[in-house]
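Format notes (please read before filing issues)

Several people have asked whether sequences and structure tokens are stored in separate files. They are not. Every record keeps both together, in the order shown below: the sequence lines, then the token lines. Line labels are part of the format and must not be stripped during preprocessing.
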Amino acid sequence: MATDPPVHRTETLTTPAGDQADIDTEMVPVIRALWGLGLTTTACCQDVGEAVAGIRAQRETPLGYGGDGFIAYHHGYALLKLPVPEAQRLVEMLAGTEAFGEWMRHPWRPGSWRMHIPLTAEGSAPEALLHFSRSQIALLTDVLRGAIRVSHR
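Then the structure lines:
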């Protein structure tokens, strides 16, 4: 199965399981910090709207998603995709911080995270999608690195 070329520059990292993964360069510090906390990630993107628009522009055949509304809704939002229990652990941890607490506890306020667990006919999907403002990437990295330091004491 052919894959679309990346829209964002990537860096290839070795996952904790030993696999190779291409990670958007802006997301590399976040992913490394999440892995340092023992969390599993299955996907990420530094700007979902921009990426989908870029992929759509490169393809001769439609994506099947990613219309103008989708792109506008996701523009400027980064993405983390994690197994549901690990996403819940991350959200609970961030809800207890001064930096992210309000954004975790109060959805739909400016800066709040969009957190989705897709539903299928078979039930809930096994992975959660966490969308957050791309402008929060550096702050998230700092908070996660602080959590790593605390956990290693």
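For reference, the curators noted about this record: Helices lie at 28-36, 48-58, 68-74, 84-95, 101-105, 137-151. DSSP finds six helices and eight strands in the chain.
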